[in-house]
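Pipeline run #58 for the internal structure catalog. This entry was flagged by the ingest filter as a single-chain record with no existing model, so it goes straight to prediction. Upstream metadata was stripped on purpose; only the residue string is passed forward. Reviewer on rotation: M.T. Logging verbosity set to normal.
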Amino acid sequence: MLSRHSKALAILTLSIAVAVGGLVLTRQVIAVAGEADAERLNRSILDYIAQKNPQAPIRAFQRFPEALVAEAQKSNLDHCLVLAQAEVESEFHHDAVGAAGEIGLFQILPSTAAIMESVVGPFRRPVGVKLVRDAKSTRDLGDLADPVVSTRFAMAYLRDIMTRKSNVRDALTEYNGGPAGRHPHYYRMVMGTYVEILERADLRCRFRETPKPSPALTTFLIRA
């Protein structure tokens, strides 16, 4: 027969084991729930891309949602704002080529990407883009045509700009083409698209839980 002390010790040991087991199980449940939430968000981002560009090869974008969220967090930006920037830059054409040779989802110049290699890592350069810009079957756009690579370089470049600029407007303006910007309405276009994306609850924008902007505020953001 167990002594009173032995029984108390056994009960204490059992209680600790149950508590530890419950803590481990809780962490596992939280981890699984977090993965499920992330997967739902990834699907929502891919659905949004497919709606905006029905011709987008979704296979090319499979890893983009994770990169989008991760890079936005690194930049302390709402991932929906970054998504809006991608839409304005390329309309979700991962192989888009601009008039000056900008490539990919975020329209990065290879020369700009080269500056950020020390931060992001090496990338494979495009071959013959300017010479055969209209011959898609024969051109090699290199790694910048990969949405994940484009996102990493774009956000690294934007973070670098943000170390010198005090607000998002100035940072986006410089990203678009220097302090003056190439497109006079670039910031307005990005913010207008961002306001539209904020209406999508499934995209879980960082500022989704804030009160819905009044018409006057929406007009101010678009005209800013």
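catalog note: Confidence is low (pLDDT under 50) at residues 23-33.
catalog note: DSSP finds nine helices and no strands in the chain.
status: ready for reviewer M.T.
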